Amino acid sequence: MSYSRFAIFFMERFRRRRIQFFCSAFPPSACRTVLDVGGTPQIWRMFDAPYEVTVLNEDPQELETVSDRCVIGDGRNLQFPDKSFDVAFSNSVIEHVGNWKDMQRFASELRRVGNSFYCQTPNKWFPVEPHLGTLFLHWWPRLLNFYFVTRYFTLWGLLNRPSRAQVKKSLANIRLLTRRDLEHLFPGATIVTERFLLLSKSYVIMDRTGKCL
């Protein structure tokens, strides 16, 4: 079993709860059109609601087809006019877009193209790192730069048996954020804490002040 299959099995419960929260915060009766930045079509099959969703991803392999509803693009430089969608949506993507400036551009684009926005991301200070499946080690990222540590002391490394190049590439694409980071990226937005065993597991940053319809 690969780590991704293992993680998906355990994350299904959290994902369904998050979908319910999104539907209550942004009901399709008021917020019909959605741009999913960095997502895949599969997650929207779990929504029992009539949203009109456009999925944007820079990797064509993540899209089932390229059409009006599945488009190739960069979340840091969206090809849509201002306020093109009722909601700009992003789930566990902003921590993968690059350095701090890349994250600022990504956050700015979400705010620009959506009348409202919803952005979810894991909490850096939660004890479990969701991408690697390790306890506490992500709090000392320099340790993870050692191939031996990532290969043999993370669940991702044990299950996937990555090469040194694969470890380097994966670590370069992960930068977890704190609540303070998110306050800087999305000034004035509402931040909702998702909890597990009373601990802050992840954050949802959203703005519902824009008029959807």
Radius of gyration: 17 Å
Q: Label the structural class.
A: alpha/beta
- Straight-line N-to-C gap: 45 Å
Number of helices: 7
What kind of sheet is the major sheet? 7 strands, mixed
Q: How many domains is the backbone divided into?
A: 2
Strand order of the largest sheet: 3-2-1-4-5-9-8
Q: Which fold does the CATH topology of the largest domain refer to?
A: Rossmann fold
CATH superfamily of the largest domain: Vaccinia Virus protein VP39
Strand content: 15-25%
Helix amount: 25-40%
Instruction: Look at the structure and give the CATH class of the largest domain.
Output: Alpha Beta
CATH architectural label of the largest domain:
3-Layer(aba) Sandwich
Number of strands: 9
Average pLDDT works out at 90
Low-confidence stretches: none
The best one-word shape is: globular
List keywords for this structure.
alpha/beta; Rossmann fold; seven-stranded mixed beta sheet; 213 residues; 2 domains; two-stranded antiparallel sheet
Characterization of this structure:
By secondary structure, this protein is an alpha/beta fold. The chain folds into two domains: 3-131 and 175-207, 3-Layer(aba) Sandwich (Rossmann fold); 135-173, no CATH class. Helices cover 33% and strands 23% of the residues. A seven-stranded mixed sheet has the order 3-2-1-4-5-9-8. A two-stranded antiparallel sheet has the order 6-7. Helix 2 links the parallel strand 4 (85-91) and strand 5 (114-122). It is globular and about 50 Å long. The chain starts with a helix and ends in a 6-residue tail after the last strand.
